[in-house]
Specification:
Distance between the termini: 37 Å
Protein name: Integrase catalytic domain-containing protein
Helix content: 40-55%
InterPro entries: Integrase_cat-core, Integrase_H2C2, Retrovirus_Pol_polyprotein, RNaseH-like_sf, RNaseH_sf
Organism: Perkinsus olseni
CATH class of the largest domain: Alpha Beta
CATH architecture of the largest domain: 2-Layer Sandwich
GO molecular function: nucleic acid binding
Number of domains: 3
Radius of gyration: 23 Å
Shape: globular
GO biological process, one term: DNA integration
CATH superfamily of the largest domain: Ribonuclease H-like superfamily/Ribonuclease H
Strand content: 5-15%
Largest sheet: 5 strands, mixed
Strand order of the largest sheet: 7-6-5-8-9
Structural class: alpha/beta
């Protein structure tokens, strides 16, 4: 059905047609209208339909999302691609490309225990209210003399913040937490193990700032499983870097955080989307939106500002 739902269907809230709806963009591109949770009263998401006669284009798109997303598995890659593109046998093609990824095969580790499911924590009522923290290291020092990674994760949204440290002293941890508070706000409760950096001096400092601390057993990783799962991901990412990048692994810590914060939770949303209220903008999505916006600008002779804006957007797209 090459049309949008009729006004009668919109007011009744029932689709007159059981299958998907399609539409044409201003550039003549066929798109599929994806309504959130099947609600046609909501604004649909337009997914570009890709032809399957040339699979090289589809494979390049899959590889682009797979590599930019941090070499996540096929389910996460499909979730990211499905917001912008659709084609027949989409699941099969994405699994095929992801299984052939050389880097994924190199860094993949066999786990005897089941992975910790990243469900939302109902004990936290607000984002960034209850935070779990832990230290990863010591790692091999890079050129910036970084040896540790401070992991902070929100219990409600599962949003992760990583910070590279030179040492594991309480002073370094507190300074890194103050930098995190300036960006993301002050939490109410900290949950950490009884490591040397989280003992007396750390607890006294947090108590003086009005933050409660909850201690878990240092030798029971399952008691702080959300941080342990993140630390295993950071280790796997660093081990997969090439030799030149390994010398400055601390510069790639934000890439790991983006990878973790854009992975979908079992609830269907990513930590980024829960915290910010919008999906993470993928690179191809921003390119397509820039092209659509530039084509809709009215370039009249007296509209010099609009003309300059279009030239800037074309320059960004070409780069």
């Amino acid at each position: 059905v090459l049309q949008r739902p009729s006004s009668i269907s919109r007011y009744s809230g029932v689709k007159a047609y059981g299958g998907p709806y399609y539409s044409m963009t201003a550039d003549g591109i066929l798109v599929e209208l994806r309504y959130p949770y099947g609600d046609i009263l909501a604004v649909p998401n337009e997914c570009y339909l890709l032809p399957t006669d040339d699979m090289s284009i589809i494979d390049s798109i899959i590889l682009f999302y797979h590599e930019k997303g941090g070499h996540t598995n096929s389910r996460h890659t499909r979730w990211r691609i499905g917001r912008s593109f659709r084609w027949p046998h989409m699941r099969r093609d994405i699994e095929r490309v992801c299984r052939r990824c050389v880097r994924c095969q190199f860094v993949a580790a066999y786990r005897r225990s089941r992975s910790i499911k990243r469900h939302l924590d109902t004990s936290a009522r607000l984002p960034w209210q209850v935070i779990s923290i832990d230290l990863l290291g010591p790692l091999k020092a890079d050129v910036f003399r970084m040896q540790y990674v401070l992991v902070a994760i929100c219990h409600l949204s599962r949003f992760v913040v990583l910070s590279a440290l030179k040492d594991a002293s309480t002073r370094s941890v507190v300074d890194a937490l103050h930098d995190i508070w300036c960006l993301w706000g002050r939490p109410v409760v900290f949950r950490a193990d009884n490591g040397p950096a989280f003992r007396g001096q750390f607890k006294r400092q947090m108590s003086s700032e009005g933050i409660r601390t909850q201690s878990v057993s240092r030798y029971s990783p399952w008691s702080n499983g959300v941080c342990e799962r993140v630390m295993s991901t950071v280790k796997g990412f660093i081990s997969g870097l090439n030799k030149s990048d390994t010398r400055r692994w601390s510069r790639f810590i934000p890439v790991v955080a983006r990878r973790l914060n854009t992975k979908p939770l079992p609830e269907g949303k990513s930590p980024f989307e829960i915290l910010f209220g919008r999906p993470y903008p993928e690179e191809l999505e921003t390119r397509l939106s820039a092209e659509e916006d530039s084509s809709q600008i009215d370039l009249t002779p007296d509209n010099e500002a609009a003309r300059n804006l279009q030239l800037q957007q074309k320059l960004v797209v070409s780069e």
